[in-house]
Design goal:
- It is built from 14 helices and two strands; from the N terminus they run E-E-H-H-H-H-H-H-H-H-H-H-H-H-H-H.
- By secondary structure, the protein is mainly α.
- The protein is globular and about 65 Å long.
- The two termini are 26 Å apart.
Length: 324
Amino acid sequence: MGNFLSQFNDLLNKEGDSKVPDVQLDFEDPTLTGEDAEVYASVSHLLDSTAELLELLRTYEGCGQYIRQAIGSPGQEAEAEAWSHVKPAVDKLKMFYKYSTSIESNLPHILNTLCIGDVNKNLERHQPMARILCQLLDFVFEFDALKMKTPQIQNDFSYYRRCLSRGKLSNEGDLKSAMNEDELANHISMFYAYPTPMLKTVTEVTTKFVDKNNVGRSVSECLATLANVCFHSVSNKKKPQRPETTAFCLRVMVISIIIYDHIDSQGAFSKSSPINIKDSVKAIQTYGNASDKPNLISALKYNTKHLNDPSTSKTIKSLIATSA
């Protein structure tokens, strides 16, 4: 990820009259304090498998050829061949879904550490936790970008459910196991029905945390701060950074904006928002790499909640529409 040491002050919002609090974050080698040790140990495993999961999704080939053969020329041999490819593919899909459930279990602990109390002090005092949150948001973006390029996932899983249904009917002796598997399949199917399932998971978990703890303002502040830190990092010409760090910052910035837009009643595009959307989009246009840039703009266009509100500036709407 490179050296990401960002400090910003006197950063104005689009109205030019509001300053973002001074915050310094070190995501390269943050110091783990004793007060963070217990929570950090319980959530740091979230990052252990992200690289493997992304590689599995990146190399996912799909089973369309074998499924078509089994459906078009049904028979024991063709169906066995299809199953021999679909079963390991679905095992991977289950791994991805299982990871999303770990987000549901662990993200509230991270938000609790960073968003209860003084958010800016929390971000500086609990930098290892802030680092985990940013790396998680980065993973969310990368996973969903790959998922949208892998349409065969839903076709493979549909065939798996078809086989599961047939198997349940022919094996009533193991009905309980079959019913449990069918229930899991229902949850997994709904997970993959969304174009961006990991983002949906993170957004829903954050929304539930806000509603449960009545901390909408502080969670919004945390997300806005992360978005602005990332923006400042990529646009600060006095501190050039490596391309991979710039890409990381832009991805975290965009996901932070999207979640902010879902949990803040006014949204990220309102005049009162502390996030300068216009400058954020221009940063994507200027510093985004060729592979990420269209995905970053599309994420803002299709995954935010308030972009098409009547109150959103026509200039912002036009900028995002013409940038996609």
